[in-house]
TrEMBL record:
SUPFAM superfamilies: Xylose isomerase-like. InterPro entries: Sugar_Epim/Isomerase, Xyl_isomerase-like_sf, Xyl_isomerase-like_TIM-brl. The lineage of its organism: Eukaryota, Metazoa, Chordata, Craniata, Vertebrata. Keywords: Isomerase. It comes from Nycticryphes semicollaris. This is HYI isomerase. The keyword Isomerase applies.
Amino acid sequence: GDQEAGEMGLAAVPGRQAAFRQGLAAAVQYARAVGCPRIHLVAGRVPLGADRAAVADEMETTFIENLKYAADLLAQEDMIGLVEPINSRITDPRYFLNTPHQAAAILEKVGRPNLKLQLDIFHCQIMDGNLSRNLEKYFPLIGHIQIAQVPGRHEPDSPGELNFPYIFELLESLSYTGYVGCEYAPKGDTLEGLGWLRSYWESRGLQHSGTSKAAE
């Protein structure tokens, strides 16, 4: 979308379907070039000055229409489309897709196996909490996970509300095999900030390279 005009994604924005399709085609080209199998289909914001409740049905209809189009296109490329709820309490008050419940309901209506939930633990905690049950409930829909501590959105071992060692063990117990994206702002130096990962590897009996000592 037009970021200078305040747009952040177009997938659910009425009247912008042509621009969404054009942007998706470009994204597919980039993803193909770098071998990326997943594309985030960014929903977009409630139009400035509009009442969220008044435009909710029209935006959902647009979102479903665009997601079906995207799913068909991505299936030809053997790619996955992702939708991510972004919290409206802190990060983006006008963002259309706010909770995993809303995302799951929309994905059910679309009904395409190559569309998945991009679950950002930061946004989920702010909007709903109940992380363990939500991870278990929506696990079959999850195609990507992102993490950040709440409320500062820094490293997972920074002061905050979330117990990330527990969350990581829960993901392991659910047999999650995908990537965990570090969607946080480092408090300082990026490499120093990755000390939490070294500590986690060591707690799990892994070397810094990720190889298992037991396997050796």
